[in-house]
Design goal:
The protein is an alpha/beta fold. The protein folds into two domains: about 450 residues, Rossmann fold (3-Layer(aba) Sandwich), CATH 3.40.50.12780; about 110 residues, GMP Synthetase, Chain A, domain 3 (2-Layer Sandwich), CATH 3.30.300. Helix 5 crosses helix 6 and helix 7 crosses helix 8. It is globular, with a radius of gyration of 24 Å. The N and C termini lie far apart (about 60 Å). The mean pLDDT is about 95. It binds 5'-O-[(S)-butoxy(hydroxy)phosphoryl]adenosine.
């Protein structure tokens, strides 16, 4: 039996037990047999959740790109590594082989070196889903620079915050991006951001849309001519196991985004191992994850995990609705996709469209379907299972987070019997716990609590960039000696986990993690706004949508409310991005507050969800009357 490839439920249980009884021994075996190391570790694991500090494979040396590219050249040099499917159906797909990937990544590495980028420097990548994005990420990893990919849907203000937080000296971007029928001018967003980023010394620009752009001399360089002149060979930077590999920002419930730091060795081992098993990848499969590389899903399961296994991974530039809602299925048929990994919000949107858009394509190549990003509701699960999987492809409902680096709870397809809305069992090496509000672990089955993890896994984020105390406070202070996920979960009679959703002020909208505080901060910058509170409410397609309660300043009370709504949403778009726009905005005279001045979001959530049967005791509020007033305004 090979521990690397789990083939049935019995093996899963056997290997799981092994991984929990002696995690060090278990992970050592995986690391030893399946990766290329420049130097062996002295110590497999040291950890202390109090500090907190976690180190895996200390003393080892490696480069993740040697594992993702170089080592495959003997066997897979002409195999497609990245299959690029453009936005437009009229543009042919590109099959980028491992050999070509090697050359392009090396060229990009040399370009970065020419810009003075060295090991440990931060490089911000703000690119659409085009091959240059993959080259840029891997080139940073190759030369030991720390990449910070910022999703190219974020606004200039959000981009500037992220560039400044990690003090990036180089930005890699494009003239523009295609999204369905639209094209977006990325370069001018970058230009605007850079007005506030004095630390950026150079900007590399890929040309995608061919739009007009402004190039700042001495700062901006077109990428193509530099790539053309660069050598196809670039030696790897030998990295220590615990050297940072990348920073990726995620929203917190308060304040500015958290730059989660992932390190080289543990991340590589865990993403590769989870990819192999959770997608049951086999040699000639064509795997497609529809996420954007701007999110952790794309980092771990478009690039690093698949490439570490020598897989063919699809990079899709477009959107599910263009040129029509059959696009996903057209691509599945065209490239004979074997594993398809997407988000519940996309499934719900597609389920609303005529079935004929699915039925007209041949989806018989599919073997595994995946879901990630938020709880998948029962209806969406069945639609996916019946119409896409034809009840023959198991659905892996994969629970994890930016912070966990890799999938933590998920079925192993063809091994774990699936159950709609359940992420099912912990992956190998993962030790979940459900906790009650008093900090006690809830043992046994058929229980519900707050989801924690008791023991480190190799790809746990090591810190928040520049703020270790915030890392400790956010993840390790709620429960002693536990990593707290921020999610609630239940465990059924056989030990299957079901994630019930966030228990903090993070709201997941269309699979995007949004903190309420930064949105409220953006709204409060409006001249006419005195105070605001954001809550989530159920939405058919997005899962959750945002509901804003806004208190206006005296002088704004007479203004046209629709105009104000437009201005507020425009401000949110500018400060954060269009994904954070509010679906509903009501203007209220006050907000329900506790005596200590805390906004009672629970009440606001119930009103927003039209669920006022059980508002609880409001008499202890500082201002109980305001609840009635708000209900009248909302009309519930
Ligand atoms: C939060 C993390 C990890 C990839 C994308 C999101 C929610 C994620 C599931 C799932 C229920 C899920 C959780 C988690 N979430 N996957 N399968 N079932 N909830 O990464 O932006 O860091 O968000 O997404 O609430 O804490 P992220």
């Amino acid at each position: 039996m090979s521990n690397y490839h789990i083939k049935n439920l019995e093996e899963y249980f056997q290997i799981y037990r092994k991984s929990v009884r002696n995690p060090e021994l278990f992970w050592e075996e995986i690391a030893e047999e399946h990766f290329v190391w420049r130097k062996r570790w002295n110590n497999i694991l040291s950890w202390d959740f109090e500090k907190p500090e976690v180190k895996w494979f200390e003393g080892a040396q490696l480069n993740i790109t040697e594992n993702c590219i170089d080592r495959h050249l003997t066997k897979y040099s002409d195999k497609t590594a990245i299959l690029f499917e453009p936005n437009s159906v009229d543009e042919p797909a590109q099959h980028i082989t491992y050999k070509q990937l090697y050359a392009q990544v090396n060229k990009m590495s040399n370009v970065l070196k020419l810009q003075g980028v060295k090991k440990g420097d931060r490089v911000c990548i703000y690119l659409p889903m085009i091959p240059e994005l993959a080259y840029a990420v891997l080139a940073c990893a190759r030369i030991g620079a720390i990449h910070s990919v910022v999703f190219a849907g974020f606004s200039s203000t959000a981009l500037a915050t992220r560039i400044n937080d990690c003090d990036a000296s180089v930005v890699i971007t494009a003239d523009g991006s295609y999204r369905g029928a639209k094209s977006i001018d990325l370069k001018s967003i970058v230009d605007e951001a850079l007005n506030d980023c004095p630390g950026v010394k150079s900007v590399l620009v890929a040309e995608r849309t061919g739009g007009k752009m402004n190039l700042v001399s001495d700062r901006d360089h077109l990428l193509a001519p530099l790539m053309k002149g660069a050598s196809e060979e670039c030696a790897i930077e030998v990295m220590d196991a615990e050297d940072p590999l990348f920073i990726l920002y995620t929203s917190g419930s308060t304040g500015k985004p958290k730059g989660m730091v992932h390190s080289c060795a543990g991340y590589m081992v865990y993403t590769a191992y989870t990819f192999k098993n959770i997608f049951q990848y086999r040699e000639d499969d064509v795997y497609w994850c529809t996420a954007d590389i701007g999110w952790i899903t794309g980092h771990s399961y478009i690039l690093y995990g698949p490439l570490a296994n020598g897989a063919t991974t699809v990079m899709f530039e477009g959107v599910p609705s263009y040129p029509d809602y059959g696009r996903f299925w057209e691509v599945v048929e065209k490239h004979k996709i074997t594993q398809f990994y997407t988000a519940p919000t996309a499934i719900r949107a597609l389920a609303k469209e005529p079935l004929e858009l699915v039925e007209k394509y041949d989806l018989s190549s599919l073997k595994v379907l995946g879901s990630v990003g938020e709880p998948i509701n029962e209806e969406a699960w069945h639609w996916y299972n019946n119409n896409v999987g034809k009840k023959e492809s198991p659905i892996v409902d994969t629970w994890w987070q930016t912070e966990t680096g890799g999938i933590m709870i998920s079925p192993i397809p063809y091994s774990t019997p699936t159950k709609p809305t359940f992420a099912t069992l912990p992956f190998i090496g993962v030790q979940p716990a459900l906790m009650d509000e008093n900090g006690k672990e809830i043992k046994g089955n058929q229980v519900e609590g707050r989801l924690c993890i008791k023991f480190p896994w190799p790809s746990i984020a090591r810190t928040i960039w520049g703020n270790h105390e915030r890392y400790r406070e956010t993840y390790f202070s709620a429960y002693k000696n536990m990593y707290f996920t921020g999610d609630g979960a239940s465990r059924d009679a056989v030990g299957y986990y079901r994630i019930t959703g966030r228990v903090d002020d993070v709201i997941i909208v269309s699979g995007h993690n949004l903190g309420t505080a930064p949105i409220e901060d953006a709204i409060n910058e409006h001249q006419g706004v005195a105070e605001s509170a954001i809550v989530g409410f159920p939405h058919d397609i997005k899962g959750n949508a945002l509901f804003g309660y806004v208190i206006l300043k005296e002088e704004a009370n007479s203004r046209d409310q629709d105009e104000l709504r437009i201005e507020i949403n425009r401000l949110i778009s500018e400060k954060i991005g269009p994904i954070a726009k509010l679906d509903k905005i009501v203007f209220v005279p006050g907000l329900p507050k506790t005596r200590s001045g805390k906004i009672m979001r629970r009440i606001l959530r119930k009103i927003a969800s039209n669920d006022v049967s059980n508002l609880g005791d409001v008499s202890t509020l500082l201002n109980p009357d305001v609840v009635e007033q708000i209900r009248k305004i909302v009309g519930v």
